[in-house]
Amino acid sequence: MDADIIVIGASPAGLMAARNACEKGSTVLLLEKKENIGNPPHPANSFFKGMFDKCGETVDPSYVVHYLKGMQIISPAGRIVEVETPGYAIDKTKFDICYMKKIIKIGVDLQKGVEAQNILRDGKTFSVKTSAGIFKSKLVIISDGVNSKITSFIGLKTMKHPGDIAWGIELEIRASDIGKSKMFEYYVGNHAPGWKTTYSPRGGDNASIGAYVRRCGKDATPYLNSWIEKFKKMKGLIDFEVVRKFSGGDPIVTLPNEFITDGIMVVGGAAGQSGIGYAMRAGQICGDVAADAIRKGDISRNSLSEYRKIWEKEFKVEHYIGRIGLETLRKMTDSEIDEMITVFEKENLSFIHGTSVEQAIQILAFMLKKKPSSILKCRALLRNK
Ligand SMILES: Cc1cc2nc3c(=O)[nH]c(=O)nc-3n(C[C@H](O)[C@H](O)[C@H](O)COP(=O)(O)OP(=O)(O)OC[C@H]3O[C@@H](n4cnc5c(N)ncnc54)[C@H](O)[C@@H]3O)c2cc1C
Fold it and tell me: For the CA atoms of the chain, what is the radius of gyration?
């Protein structure tokens, strides 16, 4: 054996799975196809405190490039809902390196520039075929991202509604003072079907803008191009420099499906778990359960299903509520979105707290109290669109 556990992909989920399993006594080999961790970086470049708190990690200033005060959600007609909540624009390369150093320190064997190609099982041994030869382990964790090839090779259907992956393009831009704002801006409406366009200030002259759509193919370029023109007008910009361009898929509206089988666990984007903080928490659960299974000598699907149980307890309802919310948004007309947002405009929303179910109930109760007819806009979910 090269290790008790092989983790494929140094994604946020994979790094956490490797760390937790190692901390619980397993030997861990982490394979990453990039020659350098975090380079090129994944486009994910910000998070809000509430989301990062899910994984219980402390934000490290070494990778924060700009501190945010909150976010604005902006309707097609320009109505604004403001939510105050601390947020962080991050340098994703530094973020990944920060966690890489932590896992190396505790003894994870990280091998860079090694691409996993397939997994074969022979009795109690898994052989991971890679660009650098074959590595053997007792258990494999797959965290190779939303476009996971390895899960397809082994025939796992890890996501429900894969057609609902949001495809996004993000541009890092430079223009005088463009990054000074402290508010992240989300623009919703049919200019970005199924989700959003964004403006994310990154301090000084740096910002990032993006377009994310669903059910419109994998190339969001036309939506990004219209967004760029609108954005320039809104911010009074004649032009800006494009520093980098990123694109990718975000499984935010999919639902995790089959992410465990005998001796194999899937985590992060590959398992339909979106968002840095959420993927990291899933990685922690996965790593803990994997190490327990190795210690007990039982890597059966039944033994590993503890991962699913804990994950479902913490996140299943939130995933379903999130899907219902974004599906309703996708089906609403621009005027319905405007009307809905009017209910929350200029309101202090700090009363919304608790679990996702509690938050959903508080939001519905607020709508009922302020404008009962606004609830009817949620009927859009029933539309066959
Ligand atoms: C454009 C875009 C912007 C986003 N922005 C944000 C954001 O700001 N905040 C947020 O919280 N979430 C954001 N997300 C959501 C994001 O999908 C997740 O939060 C998460 O960061 C992605 O993690 P992942 O598990 O999909 O894996 P990835 O980060 O994609 O990591 C997979 C890793 O596996 C490696 N790998 C792949 N195949 C192999 C192989 N065969 N062998 C070895 N290694 C392999 C890759 O090189 C990579 O390092 C964004 C998504 C997109 C598409």
Answer: 21
